[in-house]
Amino acid sequence: MSSSPTDTAVAIEMPQMGISVAEGTIVEWRKRPGDWVEADEPVCDVSTDKVDVEIPSPAAGRLGRIVVEPGETVAVGTVLAELEAGMEGAEDPDDRSRVYSPIVRRMAADRHVDLEQVEGHGVGGRIRKVDLLAFLEEDEGQPRLHTESPYEPDTDSLREPMSPMRRQIARHMVESRRTAAHCTTVVEVDFTRVAARRRALRGEMERRGVGLTYLAFVAQVTVAALERHPILNASIEGEEIVHHEDVNLGIAVALDDGLIVPVIRRAQRLSLERMAAAIGDLATRAREKRLAPDEVHGGTFTITNPGRFGAVLATPIINQPQVAILDLEAVVKRPVVVERDGEDSIAIRPMSYLCMSWDHRALDGAEAARFLGELRAGLERGGDER
Fold first, then answer.
1. Strands 249-251 and 253-255, how do they pair?
2. Which of 45, 149, 260, 303 is such that its CA lies 20 to 30 A from the CA of 187?
3. What is the pLDDT of residues 182-219, one digit of tens each?
4. Are strands 42-47 and 23-29 parallel, antiparallel or unpaired?
């Protein structure tokens, strides 16, 4: 590749995305060799075990050689492609006829459509979903050029390759099971007083733009208990237990194609309202893929919340190198025995299970039970331990 003041080869590299991220996987290239690229325009999508990010072009120019193909995982600093920077763009900068949205690319792949055959009527000639649907209707029954499908059928079933995020999750979970001595302890909690406080506070918080969930109460009580049980807020490095001064609380967030655990740093400083706001903000930005890389590492304890999907019991896998993970199950009304004036009776109460998986290398069952007992007591008092 020639170089001159107006034609210089620039490397597009795998960037550093947080101190704990050492590698990334190319999901797809948004540009192909020969395409014109503006400075800071995304050229490819990268997935890590922490976050999905767009890689921007370091300069304006024409994309040259692609070095790393989709599906390949490479270390930080690896050259992904080369850019012929400083060249005049021969294409019309307003021409967006070959700029495809993710949904259009996915629909085209699923239906084996060559997008070069589709006429776009969006801004700059961009192909919209409605344009692709119109093409499909007009072309019904006609042969099309096929793009490569991710599915590889055999005589018995369809095979689908794992996404980069799914592969990262698989490696992380298998490594955790291989590393930690997993045990799980479960307590049942009466959420009557939490439910009453939530009803009393929810309207005012919503007017301030904060959604108050059961998870916020559980997180608040958990953080307070972790300060009294520091072994649960520790991590294991080799044969050493590392105690952490701050509670950096990880909140597992379910995504369409996996999960991610953004971190609320110094959670011990937050009021109930600020905790609820932080949880809502991180969950929203996680689902919209707007998290910064530094927001998904450094957690010291994790809470996961499958109860929001109706689950009632689980044995979560520890998020390494932490020593425990707490699971909040669905809060459901059940008949329970309650004592009133020394007499037992049956009452309908909002009940839930807290399930905690913990590492037997760091602590024993008695400590885990004491910790969960404090969580239950705090929640049955109303859930605000600050």
1. unpaired
2. 260
3. 999 999 999 999 999 999 999 999 999 999 999 999 99
4. antiparallel
Whether 281 sits among the annotated catalytic residues: the reply is no
Q: What pLDDT, on the 0 to 100 scale, is given for residue 142?
A: 54
Rounded average pLDDT over 58-82: 91
> What pLDDT is recorded for position 6?
43
Does 360 participate in catalysis according to the annotation? yes
Q: How confident is the model at residue 18 (pLDDT cuts 50, 70, 90)?
A: low
Cβ–Cβ contacts within 10 Å for residue 221, how many?
A: 27
Task: Give the 3-state DSSP-derived string for the chain, with helices as H, strands as E and coil as C.
Answer: CCCECCEEEEEEECCCCCCCCCEEEEEEECCCCCCEECCCCEEEEEECCCCEEEEECCCCEEEEEECCCCCCEEECCCEEEEEEECCCCCCCCCCCCCCCCHHHHHHHHHCCCCHHHCCCCCHHHCCCHHHHHHHHHHCCCCCCCCCCCCCCCCCCCCCCCCCHHHHHHHHHHHHHHHHCCEEEEEEEEECHHHHHHHHHHHHHHHHCCCCCCHHHHHHHHHHHHHHHCHHHHEEEECCEEEECCCCCEEECEEECCEEECCEECCHHHCCHHHHHHHHHHHHHHHHCCCCCHHHHCCCCEEEECHHHHCCCCCCCCCCCCECEEEEECCCEEEEEEEEECCEEEEEEEEEEEEEEEEECCCCCHHHHHHHHHHHHHHHHCCCCCC
pTM beyond cutoff 0.85: no
Spot the catalytic one: 139, 281, 360, 384: 360
d(CA 347, CA 335) in angstroms, rounded, equals 5
pLDDT digits over 266-317, tens only? 999 999 999 999 999 999 999 888 888 889 889 999 999 999 999 999 999 9
**Contact yes or no for 96/77 (Cβ under 8 A):** no
